[in-house]
Write a structure and sequence with these properties.
The chain is mostly helical. It has one domain: 23S rRNA-intervening sequence (de novo design (two linked rop proteins)), CATH 1.20.1440. Helices cover 74% and strands 0% of the residues. The chain has four helices and no strands. Helix 1 runs antiparallel to helix 4. The longest helix is centred in the middle third of the chain and has 27 residues. The mean pLDDT is 94.
Length: 120
């Protein structure tokens, strides 16, 4: 029997990316309005980019393209982690508020790495 190909929506790594994107919208809603076009916008774009690149890569026709988009997602994840840390250092978010999000990001990064390794 042929193995059924998963949709990107069935990938745990995509689901975690979506969860982190939703969480960043909730978190940044509390940021000062002066950051609407600054850190708030940057964090939201970086967070949305993670599951978007996973989905786009999965929709591509080759494994090598999927791997490339998983690498792009890793870059967006690093960008988002940096911005999250900066938001804590600036006092826009506290460590307690962001702790659950950090856990999701760690799991997301690990699952992305595992998937990338399996695709080699």
């Amino acid at each position: 029997m042929a193995k059924r190909l998963l949709s990107y929506r069935e990938l745990d790594v995509w689901k975690l990316g979506m969860a982190s994107a939703k969480a960043v919208y909730a978190l940044t809603a509390l940021f000062p309005s002066s950051e609407s076009f600054g850190l708030t916008s940057q964090m939201r774009r970086a967070a949305v980019s993670i599951p978007s690149n996973i989905a786009e890569g999965k929709a591509r026709s080759t494994t090598s393209e999927f791997r490339r988009f998983l690498q792009v997602a890793r870059g967006s994840l690093a960008e988002f982690e940096t911005q999250l840390e900066l938001s804590v250092e600036l006092g826009y978010a506290n460590r307690g508020e962001s702790r659950a999000l950090w856990k999701v990001l760690q799991e997301l990064g690990a699952k992305r790495s595992t998937l990338l390794t399996r695709l080699k």
